Amino acid sequence: MASRGARKRSNQQYFQGNDVRLSKTLSYLLRHGAEKEGFTFTEGGFLYVDDVLKWSSLKTYTQEDILRVVENNDKKRFAVEQDEDTGRVKIRANQGHSVQVENLQLSPLIEASQYPVVIHGTYRKAWESIRSQGLSTMNRNHIHFAPGEPEDSGVISGMRKSCQVLIYLNLQKALEDGLQFFLSDNNVILSPGNCDGIISPKYFSKVMDRETGQSLDLQTNS
Question: What class of enzyme is it (predicted)?
C-alpha cells in the first residue's frame, strides 16, 4: 500500500499534469481555434468562461480550474476580467494569436530607450534560414521578443526556455525605418514586421549561441 506521502506526490503530479493540459487547450482555443470551434470573440479577444466550459474539450473542467491555471501560469499567457454589465467572467490570451482580434490591448512602443535589450529566441536548425531571410510572423500575427535577457528580473515571457539562439534586435533602427512594435499585458514585445510579415536581418545587432556564449556570423554566403 502506498504511503501517505507517495499518494500526496501522486496527486500533485496528476493535478500539475492536468493543469498543463488545460493551459495548452486554452492556448489553442484563445490564440488560434475560437472561430473554428464556433466561438466569437468579444472586444479585446475575450471569451466568456461559462461558454468556454461548454466546449467538449473543456467540459470536465470548472471555472475554478481555469482561474487556477491563469493565476499559476508562469508566463502570464492569459488574462481574466469580470464583465461590468453581466458579472460573467471572461478570459483571453495576452498574445500569440494567429487570428485577428479587435482591440487587443497592446501598447505601442515609441522610444527605443525604454527597452535597450530586445531579444528573439530561436533554435540552431532555424538560424540559417533566419540569417538569410529574416524573422517571420509565420502563421501568427506578430513576431515575439523578450524585453531583456532570459534570466533578467521581470522577463517572464517572449521566448521558450529551450531556445538555443538569441537574436538581439536594434530596436532604434527598426523604429526609425517605420516598423511597429507593441507591448502586451504580460510584457512581451510584439511586431507585425514589414508588409510581408518580415523583420530583416539588417535589424539584428548581434546573435549569440545561448549554450556556448559565442557570437554567430550575421553574414550570409550569398
Answer: transferase
